[in-house]
Amino acid sequence: MTDDPYETASKIAASNCYCLIIMRGLPASGKTTFAHDFVRARAAEGRSAFRIGRDDLRNFLCVGSVPRKKCIGTREQEDIVTDLERTIIPPMFASGARWVVEDSTNLHPASIARLESLANALNIPSAVIELDVPVEECVARDALREDPCGEDVIRGMAFAMGRSAR
C-alpha cells in the first residue's frame, strides 16, 4: 500500500472487503480524528465500521481517576485491556462491520503482531496505517489538549520508535 494514510484508507474502503485497520503514531498525531473520520464516512455511505481504542477501554475500567490525568494501568490492568480488545473485535466483524479501526497510541510492534494474529485467526486482512507527524507538531498539539500526555512522553515514544525525539 501507499505511504499516504488517506490514500491507503480510501483504497481499503473502496475494496469493500473486511479489514482490521491498525492505527499507529505518536500521541496527538491525529489517529483518533482519522479513525472517527473513517468510521463516519462509512456510516454516511450506509456501510458499517467501528472504532476501538485502548485508551477508551482503560478509561472505562479506571475508577477514581484524577481529572486531567491519564488513566495508566498496572501490568495486570493492561492485560485486562488486551483481553477486552481481543474479545470485542470479533463481534464487531460478526455484526456486519466491514472495517474495525484499532486506534491506540503508538502501538509497539508486539501489539501490532498480536492484532495481526487476531485478524488472521478471523480470516480477515489487516492494514497498518501510520500517521508520521513530526514530533514538534505532536508536542504542540498535545499542549492544547485538555488531558495532555506531555512533551517528555511524546519524545520518549518517538525515541522508542527510532525517530528523532528533538
List the helices and strands and how they pair.
Blueprint: H1 5-15, E1 19-25, H2 31-44, E2 49-52, H3 54-61, H4 75-94, E3 99-103, H5 109-121, E4 126-131, H6 135-143, H7 151-160
Parallel strand pairs: 1-3, 1-4, 2-3
List keywords for this structure.
four-stranded parallel sheet; 166 residues; alpha/beta; Rossmann fold
What does this structure look like?
With 166 residues, this protein is an alpha/beta fold. It has one domain (5-22, 30-132): Rossmann fold (3-Layer(aba) Sandwich). It has helices at residues 5-15, 31-44, 54-61, 75-94, 109-121, 135-143, 151-160; strands at 19-25, 49-52, 99-103, 126-131. The protein has a 4-stranded parallel β-sheet, sandwiched between helices. Helix 3 packs across helix 4 (75-94) and helix 6 (135-143) packs antiparallel against helix 7 (151-160). The model has no long low-confidence stretch (mean pLDDT 87).
Distance between the termini: 29 Å
Task: Give the strand order of the largest sheet, numbering strands 1, 2, ... along the chain.
Answer: 2-3-1-4
The DSSP helix count reads: 7
What is the CATH fold-level name?
Rossmann fold
**Tell me, what is the CATH class?**
Alpha Beta
| Rounded radius of gyration (Å) | 16 Å
Overall tally of domains: 1
Mean pLDDT: 87
Tertiary shape: globular
- Which architecture does the CATH hierarchy give at level 2? 3-Layer(aba) Sandwich
Strand residue percentage:
5-15%
Helix content: 40-55%
Taken in chain order, the helices and strands follow as HEHEHHEHEHH
CATH superfamily: P-loop containing nucleotide triphosphate hydrolases
Low-confidence stretches: none
Q: What structural class is derived from the secondary structure elements? A: alpha/beta
According to DSSP, the number of beta strands is: 4
Largest sheet entry: 4 strands, parallel
